[in-house]
Amino acid sequence: MEIQIRLFTIAFVAMALLAGCGKKKAPDGPKGGGSRGGTPAELAKVELDSVEEVEAFYKADPEFFRIKTTADIPTDLKWEDGSNEKVFASPKAKRGGTLNTFTGDWPRTLRFVGPDASGSFRQYILDSNALILVESHPQSDGYYPSIAKRWAVGPDKRTVYFELDPDARYSDGEPIRVTDFFFHFYFMRSKHIKAPWYNDYYDNKKFKNITLYDTRTLSITYYKAKPDVVEKVSIRPVPEHHYEEIDEDFLKDYQWEFEPTAGAYEVLEENVNDGVAITLTRVPNWWADKKRFHKNRYNPDKIRVTVVREPAKVFELFRKGELDWHGLSLPEYWHEKLPNDSPEVMKGYIHKVKFYNEIPVPTWGMRINCSMPFLDDQNIRQGLHHAMNWALVNKEIFYGDFERQQTVADGYGKRSHPTVRVREFSVEKAGAAFAKAGFTRRGADGILRNADGKRLSFTISTGYKRFTDVLTVLKDQAKKAGVELQLEILELTAGWKKTNEKKHEISFGGLNNSVELYPRFFEPYHSYNAYKEEGDKLYNANGTLKPGITPKPDTNNATLTADRELDKLIKQYREAEDLDEITRLGHELIQRLHDHAGYLPAWSKPWYRVGYWRWVKWPDDFNVKQSRDWDEFHVHWIDTAAKKETQAAKKSGKTFPPVIKTYDQYKRKR
Q1: What confidence tens digit (pLDDT) does each residue in 443-452 have?
Q2: pTM score, two decimals?
Q3: What number of CA atoms fall less than 13 Å from residue 527's CA on the CB side?
Q4: How far apart are alpha carbons 346 and 374 in whole angstroms?
Q5: Model confidence pLDDT, tens digit, residues 511-535
C-alpha cells in the first residue's frame, strides 16, 4: 500500500529554519568507524526527514517519487550479488604510504557538478572515487556490489531493485539512506546547480520512477528496457544531511566544500594548500574496506596532488622521485626522455610498462564550432578534415606508435561502424571542398580567399601545451591546402572553459568515454545541448537554423551540431530497446556524423604506457582490461619498505634488475 509523503510539523520546520534554512549542517557524530552506524540493518518503513521545500518537490511529482512497503516488492525477483564474478585486486597489496601525483592547474572548485567542476582534478574526488549502487565489472560484462549488496531486474526489464548494504556510510560518518536516492533527483534536477547536462540526464524523460520500499530497498525505473539497464540506473547517493536543500547560493556556498563521499578518499579543509597542492586522505575505518570487490584496493593512506603547470617540470620532478609516476604514452617520453637505456631505468629505479586495454577510445580530435562564420558550411568542415596531415604527425612526433581514430565512436565492438573510414590528408580533396564553399583564389601568402577577399583562416584553441608540436605540424601542412591555422595555447582549465562557453572556433583536446556497451550521441550531438532554443524556435520550416539563436554553455556538444534529421535519429536511438536495433541506428548515426564533419578525429591507441618508481606495486597481470589509465581502479599500492630501499640505493649506488614490460593479454586481434 502506498504511503503518502507527509509534511513536517510546524515545530520541525521552524527548527530547520533556525538551523540555517537549508544550508549544510556540521555532523554531530564521530567520524569513520565511530559513526552512529550505517544503513539500518533492520528493515523499517520509510519516513522522510526532509525540509519543507524538498518534500514539496517530491509531492509535486507523485508518479515519480513513490513510497511503498516491503510487501510490495515482487516475490519472484532473481536477485544477483556478483558472487559469480572474479575478484580483480591482488591479495599481495599493502596498505599505507603516500602516492605523489600532480595536476596541471589548480582546481576552480571542489563541487562535483556545475561550472568549472569538470576539470582534471575531478577524477580524484568523483570519477575514480565516488561509489554508486552497483559497479560494472572491469574484466567482464557483469556487475559487482557496491553501495547495494544485491540487485534484481524486474519483469518489465526497465525497473531495477536494489538492497543497500547496511554498512554503507559517508566519509562524515553519516549512514547512507534510501532517501538519499530521492534527494539525488531533487539535486540533479535543480537549476541552481547550473549544470544543464545533469538537469537533462536525470529528468523524468529518461528516469521514470524511484520507489522506496523500506529503509534498505529501492527501485529505479528507466524509460526503456535496455541491455545494460543495471548500469543505466546505478546512481550515486547525494547526502541530504549535507545539503538539506539547494538554493540560488549553491555555487558560492559549496565552491570549496567537499561533499561527503561513500568512496575511500576525502578532502579535508586542512589538507588544501591553496594554489600548491591538495592531499586526499583515506577515510578512517572506511566502510567498504573489507568488502569482496573493494578489498585490497585504494591502498595508499594519502594521495598528494601537486599543481605543476609546466610539463617539463612535471617530468623533472618524476625523475627526481618527487612524483611517483609519469605517463609515457607520448612517444617523446617513451623513446627520448626516458629511453630504455636511461640511468634510472637501467639501474632498476624506474620501471616502464606498456599495457593493452580494451575500451572505447578517448575522443582525441578537433571539435569544430559549427556556429562560427564559414565553419557553419559543411564543405569547409570536410575540407579541413582533408587539410590535416595526421599521418605525418604520427610519423614525425609519435614514432608511428599511434593509430588513426576512424569515427566518432571507435572501440565499441559491433556497435562501432565497420566500414566508415576517416578522411585522408589530400591537398586536392581539401581544395575541391573549399572551392564548393567559394574559396578558389590563393593570395600572395598562399591562403585561400573567397570573392569578398575573406581569408580561409581559423584559430585552434587548446589547453594541452604538451601537444604544441603536434598542432605546429598540422598548421604547417594545412597551409599547403590553403588554410591558415592560428594556435591559441592556454592553461588546461582555461582551454576547456573556452570550449564549454562555446567561444572557440576549433577546439583541440581529448575526452574519455565511459566503458559502455554502446556509444552515446545525445550529449555531444543533439541540438538540445547546442542551443538554448528548441523545436520551431531553433529550426526554420526547411530545417535550417534560425538567425540569432543562443549557444548553450556547459554541455558536451562542443561542435554545436544541430540538425533536425539527426535529432530525430538520436531520439530513435535513445528509445531503442533491442541491441540489434541499437547497433543499426548507431551505424547510421556514425555515418551521418562523418558526413557532417563537425568532429575531426585525431589518433587512438589501444594501450597506455606508464613509468613509475619501483616502490609502486601492481597485481601480477598489472591491471584490468577496461582500465583507461593506470590508477583508475586503484589496484596499485605503495611499498614503503621498497621506497626506503630505493632511496638508500640511489645514494649508495646499489642497482636492481631493470623492468621494461609489455602486458598484451588483452590485445585485440585484428
Answers
A1: 999 999 999 9
A2: 0.75
A3: 23
A4: 54
A5: 988 888 899 999 999 999 999 999 9
The pair phi, psi for residue 173, each rounded to 5°, is 90, -5
DSSP 334: I
Calculate the alpha carbon distances from 207 to 131, 240, 524 in Å: 20, 20, 20
Beta-sheet pairing, 134-136 with 143-145: antiparallel
Q: Which helix (H) or strand (E) holds 517?
A: none
CB 114 within 8 A of CB 193: yes
204 phi and psi, to 5 degrees?
-85, 10
Among the listed ranges 329-333, 340-344, 386-390, 660-664, which one has the minimum average pLDDT value?
329-333
Q: Which residues of 410-422 are buried (b: 16+ CB within 10 A; e: fewer)?
A: bbbeebbbeebeb
CA distance 361 to 493: 22
**Superfamily the domain 10-89+130-247 falls into:** Dipeptide-binding Protein; Domain 1 (3.90.76.10)
Place of cell 569578398: 452
Q: How far apart (Å, rounded) are the C-alpha atoms in residues 456 and 479?
A: 10
Show me where the domains of the chain are located: 10-89+130-247, 365-600
Is residue 80 a contact partner of residue 143, using CB atoms and an 8 Å limit? Answer: yes
Give the Cβ contact number of residue 606 at 10 Å: 18
What pLDDT shows up at residue 456? 98
pLDDT digits 0-9 by tens, 461-483: 999 999 999 999 999 999 999 99
DSSP annotation of 175: B
Neighbouring CB atoms inside 10 A of 6's CB total 11
Rounded Cα distance, 244 and 252, in Å: 16
- Looking at residue 126, the DSSP 8-state letter turns out to be I
| 365-600, CATH topology level | Dipeptide-binding Protein; domain 3 (3.10.105)
Coil/strand/helix, residue 225? coil
Cα 267 to chain center, whole Å? Answer: 20
Residue 250 makes CB contacts below 8 A (sequence gap 6+) with 114, 190, 192, 193, 194
Tell me how far apart the alpha carbons of residues 293 and 85 are, in angstroms, rounded to a whole number. Answer: 9
Residue among 532, 582, 568 at smallest CA distance from 552 = 532
Q: Quote the cell numbers at residue 149.
A: 549488496
- Please give the Cα distance from 421 to 408 (Å, whole number): 11
pLDDT at 408: 97
